[in-house]
Structure formats: C-alpha cells, structure tokens
Amino acid sequence: MNDTSEVRAMLIESATRLFADHVDARLLDAAKRDGWSPELWRIVEEAQLPLVSIAEEAGGAGGSLSDLAAVLRIAGRFAAPIPLAETAIAGWMLASCRLPIESGPLAFGPVHGENVTARQHGTQWSLSGSLRRVPWARIAQRLVVLVSGPAGIMVACVDPKQCRVSPGSNLALEPRDDVVLDDVVVAGNLVAPAGPGVDHAALRLRGALARSLLMAGALERALELAVRYSTERTQFGRKIGQFQAIQQELARFAGEVAAAVAAALSAAGALERGEDPLLAVASAKIRTAQAAHEGALIAHQVHGAIGVTDEYALHHSTLRLWSWRDEFGNEATWAAELGRALAAAGADQLWPMLTQEQTA
C-alpha cells in the first residue's frame, strides 16, 4: 500500500467513525425540522472534512478530489444533513481565483445555468439576477456565485443576508431555496475572474459528481438495512431472507450498489486525472440514478409497510436517493447529453472515448 492509499484509508476510517458517533435518529429528526444540523456541522468542520480537497495554502486540508469522493460517499451513507458537498464545491471556486475561504457552511450557484450579472462601481460590484433551488442557501454563511462581468466569467462571494431568499426543500426536507440578487453590493476584494476550468459547465459537472457519490453511499445504507431486516422479520415461520424471491431481489440490489459505487468513484478519479469529465460524470450520474430507482424500490419491497414509516431509518436514505437522482440532471438528461457528445465526435472516436485512448 502506498502513502496515498494509507492516508486515504485513515481518512475513511476517521470519517466513518465521526459520522457513526454523531449521526443518530435524534439528530436526523431534528434536522428534518430545522433544515440541517449545526451540531454535526461544527464537528465535521473541526475535522476539516468540508475542505479536504482544497490546497493548504488556500485554507484547505491539502487532500485530493478522490479524498473528497471518499468523504462524500460516507456522508451519503449516514444521510448527513449538512452542506458538505456544496461547501467543497464553493471552496474550489474560491480557491481557483485566490479569494479567501471563510469558515462556516457555503452554498454556490447557479445550479440551473441562470445568469447573474456584475457591474463595477469604483471599488465595489453590483450583482443582479435570480437563482432557483440553491441547496442550503438559507443556512449558508456565504453564497459563492459565478457571475457575468465585463471581462467574462467571475466568482463573487456574497452574504446571503443581502439577498432575498425564499425557502424551499426537496423530498428529504433539505433546503433548496430560491435566491434573488437585486443590485447586491459586494466589495471588490470579494470578486475575481474565475480560475482555470471554472465555468457553468464545470460547476454542473461537479454538482452531478457530488450527487453521484452521495447516492452511492445512501444506496449502501439502504442495502444494509434491507439485508438486516430480512434476517430479523419472520413470515410463515421462516426469516424472510430465506425465501428465494427475497434472496434474488437482494442479490440484484447488491449488484446495483456495486455498479453505482464503482461508477461514482471512477468518475472522481477520471476528473482528478484530467480525463474527459463529461463522459465520466455523465456515466456516473446515469448509473447511480438508475441504481437509486431500482435500489429504493427493492428496499421498500423487502421492508413492507415498516419501510415507509417516519420512525424507521430507511426513509432517510430513500428520500435522499429520490431527491438527489433529479438534482444536477437526472439520468435521462445526462443520457441525452452524452449521446449528443458521442454522436458529435463521430464513430471513429467512440472506442477511444470509451477507453480514454489518445488518437493522432
């Protein structure tokens, strides 16, 4: 095992223990009421997990994108009600253009490709535009926004209290808020040209990758609960896990989970290595979204009526799977986009694209 593998193994062990020690039914139920868990955020931030992939000189922990991928998978497994992925992406945006990364939860936009304009007035900037269903906007310390400025795409760090925020939520009751910026004034030292590789397309890809990794973890948890329940529930004098039909469904579920995890982690590695991000991330989002559909269905079939109750843990995973499946593009959206890219490249490029081979 090389040094990188050893460090990541320790990171995974530490993060798993942290979430296992602090995420319980009480915390998750409180988060459904409050929108998030500031208690869990404080603990996770102290461990530097939100900025694990940001360079140390920019205020992060100095890890890699694959390190972040491992952490997001674990967070998804525990249904962590905090903006971990969003803070990581917003931190990446700020670090790319050397803007300071403040402590506290961060949100970013645009999520759906909206346009926010920036006009300069001396040493200050004025931002105008609207953003739809921004994850965690109302609890964020800062909102990091891609804006259209005089010289092109820029990154701005905004105080959400200066914006008009209309609360919303997804199926799992995670904040998904509409934000209106009406000539919001931002100091000049909080606006900068976007760094290399930071644009609307890259933002959408990072969001889709994050959702794929979170879904991979949530699928693992749903499978774990389904298998456990099948060994506990007795029907017709036998554990239901002894029935062949249940065994077949659980085996199919396990296959879906394995494929989803492999696709999500592979996409993170491909993005880290600088390979074609569209092919890798689109494939991961398609595969994890399909697994979310099949896996949630099987999990609830195995559990029967108890699986839909508010007191049982399964819904924390499956409601997130159904929500995350649609965020940053569902499988149909990404399949169409991937198909267009492959068709545009031509038949001769299909195999090189699939295998990441370089052609002359």
Summarize the topology:
Layout (H helix, E strand, L loop, with lengths): L2 H20 L2 H10 L3 H9 L18 H13 L6 H13 L9 E4 L7 E5 L2 E12 L6 E8 L2 E7 L5 E3 L9 E12 L3 E3 L6 H33 L1 E2 L2 E2 L4 H30 L3 H27 L10 H13 L4 H15 L4 H6 L5
Parallel strand pairs: 1-4
Antiparallel strand pairs: 2-3, 3-7, 4-5, 5-8, 6-7, 9-10
Helix pairs in contact: 1-4, 4-6, 4-7, 6-7, 6-8, 6-9, 7-8, 8-9, 8-10
What do you see in this structure?
With 360 residues, this protein is an alpha+beta fold. 52% of the residues lie in helices and 16% in strands. It has eleven helices and ten strands. The protein has helices spanning 3-22, 25-34, 38-46, 65-77, 84-96, 200-232, 244-273, 277-303, 314-326, 331-345, 350-355; strands at residues 106-109, 117-121, 124-135, 142-149, 152-158, 164-166, 176-187, 191-193, 234-235, 238-239. Strands 1-4-5-8 form a four-stranded mixed sheet, with helices on one face. β2 and β3 (124-135) form a beta hairpin. The two termini are 36 Å apart. The model has no long low-confidence stretch (mean pLDDT 94).
